[in-house]
Amino acid sequence: MNMRTDHPFRQLERLTQQVFGDEGTPSRSSAVPMDAYRRGDEFFVQFDLPGVSPDSIDLSVERNVLTVRAERAAEAGEAGEERRWQVAERPRGVFSRRVFLGDALDSDRIEADYEAGVLTLRIPVAEKAQPRRIAVGRRERVDA
């Protein structure tokens, strides 16, 4: 496959977030679950971002590193209302994920769609990386 993820750092990120989470706001992991697959000449990458506003999603590519960043803010209470959390299992805050794209992918033609809490990226395989047929010529033999 032509992708690598930042998996080695995910456990450290989770531990740091759990220990030093936003002050006064219960927090869990900031990792973004991801699926990736190839269909024909395209790769599809899907990120779970439930409850995230499409306006808060930021996508960027720099030197073949795709970065997905989004934020799910805590629900605002009424003015002067103090919340006393009883259970807070839904992650909130800033979510990010980096995916390292191989040279065989065309990062200039990435398309993104967000529906039902799932961000789907369509990344075409670069034309130069697609298989091609090479014609074999036939040379006439000259007897000496």
Automatic annotation (TrEMBL):
Any Pfam family hit: HSP20
CDD domains tied to this protein: ACD_sHsps-like
Record-annotated SHSP domain positions: 25-144
UniProt cross-references to SUPFAM superfamilies, sorted A to Z: HSP20-like chaperones (SSF49764)
Alphabetized PROSITE patterns for the sequence: SHSP
Superkingdom of origin organism: Bacteria
Family from the record: Belongs to the small heat shock protein (HSP20) family.
Protein name stated in the entry: Hsp20/alpha crystallin family protein
Organism: Saccharothrix lopnurensis
